[in-house]
Amino acid sequence: MNHHPILNLVLRYFIILLSVIGTAGLFLFLPSPAVQKQKSGYSYYSSLTGTATCTQPESTDSLQELPELSHRKMQYTVQAEYMELPEEASVSKRRSGYQGNGYVAGLPAHTEKALVFPVHIPYSQHYAVTVCAASAKTVENAIRINGELLSDFTLIGDSRFTLVTFYGIFMEEGSAEIAIDTGEPGIEVDFIRLREDFSLDNQVFRIADSPCNPNAAPETVTLYQTLAAEWDSSMITGQYVSDNSNRELNMIYQVTGQLPAIRFSALGTRDDREVISGAMDWHVYMHGIVGLMWHWQAPGSDSVYAEEADFDLYEALRDADPEKLAAMTPEEADKAVSDGTLTPDARSLLADIDETSAMLIRLRNMDIPVLWRPLHEAGGGWYWWGAYGRDSYEKLWLLLYYRMTDYHNLNNLIWVWNGQSASYLVPERTYDIAAADIYLSPEMEFGSRHEQFQALANLTHHRKMLALSECSSLPNPDQMLLDRSVWSFFGLWYGEYLMNPDGTLSESYYSSSDLYKLYNSKQVLSLNDFLSIYQ
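^ thats the sequence. predicted structure below, dont judge the formating
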């Protein structure tokens, strides 16, 4: 029998109050997708960021006053035989097909500025620069403009004079210097030619209003539309991480006071659950963009490289209809193998896709959109998915797209195609962004890489956003604006491209000042910049 009803009532209310406080504490301190859109700084990742130690350069705005572009036609040729020649070189007339009074032969090998053309630039605008040269054997050389290494070029060694043209080169009015860097001996130079290049002014992009997947989730559509709204005016920062320690992000913050908007990582390189957990943390705690690629090891192998994997993609999918195969249940696929209508290797491909899809489903269930880049660099032929030609690659891409999109309902993916070759272009309906991987030698200025930009724009008929999915050094936002080649985002690879083995900043490809200026430029969106516009 209860003799203290009032005391018991007070005790019950006290217990309920403690329960409410405890439950509220759980929601307050545990990660929850419901707070993804919160606009915060770095407080959630205090262990990542530490205290910024960056030193602000004298100018905090990387964008200098851009020169006014002229649009005037002009063309002139400068003959090599009239230039000042090094001692080893001479004017020759032995080879046919030259212009003028001869050509320059005997240039010293492995020499910067082996042959220099002083020129006068009449107008500040973009030019096409053509080198006319020949060689009896295949040799690699390079061109410099005003002391900066512009690009390498190769002569195939057929002994004929060949025109090698570099398009969209911005040069300011006044004196300039165009120089030939020699590789191995053998290049013979006839002339250089300059003419106007207005091709950059004529491009018009027509980007789709929504992702290629008609069932894309609302948060995926929102991210895509935010990228599209910034397209052609701002570039979004991105960084690959080597693991969940996020040491690369910490380094960037220490130098710049900013974090990248996109954290890139790779499935297939270590425990995929760990990779997915790191991606989740980035989005939940920092509200940043998740970027994922897939180092897909060939079925039955522990390697992604064709020469190390005994897997024939052509034979695996030779008689398969990718869309029908993508719709099969595991039981139906097993029966098809038993019936002899499906190859065991095709069944293995399906199993691998299902396993990786299970990882991505964890992100989907938390409403986390993903910049998804599978089957990268196929055109190089070194990965097994690109080693068996275009048709096999396209079949695999379609199998992957339909299996993930229609069967697993991964409606959180924004599909990034990075075939790295026109021959490997996949159907337009199956990707959202076309991307290029560009690695340069440390002494080369990245600039805008407008030639690759224009080639990719033409390949995709100006209907896709274009991105730098991997790069070795930093794009120049000023140059991108001048060249009308503003990449949607970039992804700087980790390792030597950012950090030395001892954890210090590597300045082999760019300086700490370059990194600071890029991340604090008005034309570049860091994480805080992105979150200020992301709805």
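The CA atoms of residues 204 and 462 lie 7 Å apart.
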